[in-house]
Specification:
This protein is of the alpha+beta class. It is 47% helix and 21% strand. Strands 1-2-3 form a three-stranded antiparallel β-sheet, with helices on one face.
């Protein structure tokens, strides 16, 4: 059954695309990146003043985490979140390139062990 899936994959996978080395070079060139999203919320103080806060939210260990972002660092975090999105795209592309390379390469030779041959003999 697996042979049918692999042979179908061989015929449906495009043979063109970027190499793993090109994708890895792009990954290495990405500056600071973070996974998550930035959310903003406003608070009205008792004096009537409105203050906007920003936080980075992300999932780790099955839980939602949040980090307060100081106002002066907000542009840095927005760029890092965008870089994180780009990194996810590149990892998906790397996965496809790796699968394409694995499918196009020759399969490794099967290893024969003396143990398996000795079991085949009747005693």
């Amino acid at each position: 059954m697996l042979d049918g899936i692999i042979s179908n994959m061989k015929t449906t996978q495009p043979s063109t695309g970027r190499t793993r080395a090109e994708i890895l070079a792009d990954i290495a060139s990405i500056p600071d990146s973070v996974q998550g999203s930035i959310s903003s919320y406003t608070v009205t103080t008792s004096s009537g003043k409105t203050i906007t806060y920003h936080k980075l939210q992300y999932w780790a260990d099955g839980r939602n985490h949040a980090i307060h972002i100081p106002k002066e660092k907000l542009p840095d975090f927005e760029a890092a979140v965008e870089n994180g999105r780009r990194l996810r795209e590149l990892l998906a592309e790397l996965t496809e390139a790796t699968a394409r390379d694995m499918l196009s390469s020759d399969p490794p030779l099967k290893k024969t062990s003396s143990r398996s041959r000795s079991r085949a003999r009747p005693r």
